[in-house]
Amino acid sequence: MAxxxxxxxxxxxxxxxxxxxxxxxxxxxxxxxxxRQIAGREEQIADPGDVFEYEIGLVSILIVRGEDGExxxxxxxCRHRGTKLAVGRTSVDGCLRCxxxxxxxxxxxxxxxxxxxxxxxxxxxEGLRLGPVRLETFGGFVFVNLDPEAMPxxxxxxxxxxxxxxxxxxxxxxxxxxxxxxxxNWKTVIDAFNEGYHVQALHRQILPWIDDTSIAYEQxxxxxRYGRLPGARRLLxxxxxxxxxxxxxxxxxxxxxxxAFRVRPNGDDVHTALNDTWxxxxxxGSATPREPRYELVEDWDAFEWDPVTRQDYDNLAxxxxxxxxxxxxxAFTNPRQEGNVAHMHRVIDRFLFDD
Length: 355
Known about the structure:
The chain has 355 residues and is α+β, with helices and mostly antiparallel strands. The chain has 9 helices and 20 strands. Helices cover 21% and strands 31% of the residues.
């Protein structure tokens, strides 16, 4: 099946990649289990005992701020019966306690309490702990990787480190985190946010400000970017960057603010995705930092979106339906304006078929 699913050299993308559960299973095994991904922001777990859950497909990971102030990540599954220890965001007093049978773990993941331990005799292995997950940070973002042998984070980010340094992402703070269940495969969503080719047809009302023909696209080893060419009608200093962080994070970064979209599989449903919209800004200097606003939009169609976002989301449903209909075996990409899209799929292929 590899050749049926593989992105073509000319950038044509097999539509089965967006709708086939077997391809999604391949992604779970060879992409999501091996690639670095953004789990959250450091300020979401500012104090010792703060915990948040990151879900990717069927996997749940806990990010924890330890008593020593250090961050750690671990699998969110009790070693007794696999029960989740925490859901969403919370704060705990020194330990993670399983709600099922009361087993307790330190903030480093080590098992510290087993209720009625004597009943187990010698059945429990020594040193039992929650499965560790590799964690590193950059620009205030918390990255996790289920592969302990993965390359260092800065090596993976490559030129993004220098490209984004002037924007001081580490000084920004999360203001809004809105999670939306969208009616499309996660790649369908990322594709739409990773090119400006669709603006002239789908968002004609913003053409006077976008200058879509004056956009340059650049691909790196894993990631990509696009931005305005010299001489474009709109000039920003430093200019905005529309950056794609492989595999599932994309959005414009401005001087002093950023809007980012993190797109994840919705469990094992290939026809929907979880889209996290994050708004970040530099702090306003007040003594008490503002808490971010968290929102969950399960019914995307019932929410009052701005006109441009409504156009995007309505269109995603149409695209996914077209992919699922079987009408086309291939989706063709514009070699220049959708070069980032084809590049993303080729990098996915490296994880699935070549590495």
